[in-house]
Write a structure and sequence with these properties.
about 120 residues, alpha+beta, two-stranded antiparallel sheet, 4 helices, 2 strands, about 30% helix, about 10% strand, elongated
């Protein structure tokens, strides 16, 4: 994701395109491919020199969107999803592989990182 002067220059270069294309062109796309509009607009405002209050504190500053509550459920197709909020907290990267260990007695699932680093293609 571009920031600062680099963001402003790229946004100017793409200014004849729709807003979503400008945001994508500047790298504001999440791991699932979802456009990160709020982050894009916030970065633009900050690149223009305006200081915005930080939203990274965990105080009672109001709603901050969906919060990770460390709960999930098994989907109808049998999949169990662990979202980006959790993988980010563990600094996991796309392509990283794990061995899955099941303990039926305790009902736990353990992910053990494999030693190989993610393959780059």
């Amino acid at each position: 994701m571009l920031v600062g002067e680099e963001l402003l220059n790229k946004a100017r270069a793409l200014s004849n395109r729709p807003e979503d294309e400008i945001a994508r062109g500047c790298g504001y796309v999440g791991p699932s491919g979802r456009l990160l509009r709020k982050s894009f607009y916030r970065a633009l405002v900050e690149a223009k020199g305006y200081k915005l209050p930080s939203n990274s504190s965990s105080g009672s500053g109001g709603p901050r969107g969906r919060q990770a509550d460390f709960r999930t459920r098994v989907h109808g197709n049998g999949n169990l999803l662990i979202g980006h909020a959790y993988t980010r907290r563990l600094d996991l990267v796309p392509g990283q592989e794990f061995k899955i260990e099941l303990n039926k007695d305790s009902g736990t699932i353990t992910l053990l990182p494999l030693d190989e680093s993610p393959a780059s293609e």
